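=== Discrete structure encoding ===
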Amino acid sequence: MHRSFPEGFLWGGAIAANQCEGGWNKGGKGISVSDVARFKDPETMKDLNDVHSFCDITDEEIRQALDCIDDNQYPKRHGIDFYNRYKEDIALLAGMGFKVFRLSIAWSRIYPNGDDAIPNEEGLQFYDAVFDECLKYGIEPLVTMSHYEPPLQFCMKYNGWYDRRSIEFFTRYVNTITKRYAKKVKYWLTFNEIDSILRHPFMTGGLIESRFAPDKFEEVEYQAMHHQFVASALATKICHENIPDSMVGCMLTKRTIYPYSCRPVDILKTQQEMRSIFAFSDTQVRGEYPAYLLSMYKNKGFDLKIEPEDIEVMKMYPVDFVSFSYYSSTCAASDITNLETGLENTARGVLNPHLNRNDWGWAIDPIGLRVSMVDLYDRYCKPLFIVENGLGARDIVEPDGSIHDDYRIDYFKAHFKSMYDAMTEDGVELLGYTSWAPIDLISNSTNQMSKRYGFVYVDLDDKGNGTYKRIRKDSYDWYKEVISTNGASILNKEE
């Protein structure tokens, strides 16, 4: 039997403006939270696991960043220079046969301070050019409205998403971009990994933790989250009004957590942790807060400012599909004493002794992707879109310029087979898949370049040294064949 993915399946890759564009002070762009994210060289696995300290920031650190003219200390300011090289990069993606390209619009490139009354026309023209370049090759843009780059002034002046005025500022921005690109972009995502505000509140929500009382900060995070939920619902409404045939999705960090043992207390702990993940998609897909989240607010004594119209708006405008990132899995136990813990994306968990891990300690678990797909589809009965999945690794350029990344090919091959099984055996509806990231870029939390995900290598190191030259890895031609055969090249090959 000849096996392949469904006709029309959207194969592609995903990047984010803050990690690749550069041009941080060009074209009228305002400074974003990512432009003050300093490179911190992790010396140990313990350093790597301390995601919060990598991402947290104080007013004094922001002042130091603004006074610093050395862009290499703040790598996201230069990224991989996609701002100037987007034509070359999109041509490389087209060379693999991409059907879809997920990218984000930098809010601060359109509204430099967040609260501006008039958008920056030069920023709008830049994305016009980027989308036109995609469409020239028949590549469908999948656009994230907010991906870790709130304008810095919005954070400094209003405390970011904690201030209710954030809803007004964001919906003004959404109205502008959806009107402007109505004929160019059909697929939209509101907030990237909206749940991540709890893990890195500054990067996601513009919250400067040192400004708030420590015992109140968790409540602050959930208040900011509420404003994002309302803004997401209104963004969905606006997008549907401005682009009638558009599809709007939520995007969450899909963590897959297994019980460390079959002890009932470990099962209960796992269930509770999974609820903490589903809380965010439950709210955006079902249009209302789940009872367990409201119980948590009550039990912790949170007094969130929720207006009556907020509940109505959230209920009326849920998302059309569910998108998610998946990289690895972890375990949960009621007592983690003497158990080894580590990272799973940017969250910590008990390490699974049955799985291998990459150079950054993330478990490699393709079956976990199938589990994730079934979890989400059974729960929501809405189409899914995998918008981030990939392997960060230290690639080596050989003397002849080649890059042999069989480990990356093996990773994707196993995950694609799990995707296919979830679709054909479990009945999951999957719209498409975008790898993270098809071209090397600045990693999110550590601001490293040496953690490479791409099918395309970028000659740039952690210190900002390099030519920025693009080099195709072995995985480039492999993924090209997967796309051209719609997956048949791996599904019908004897191992």
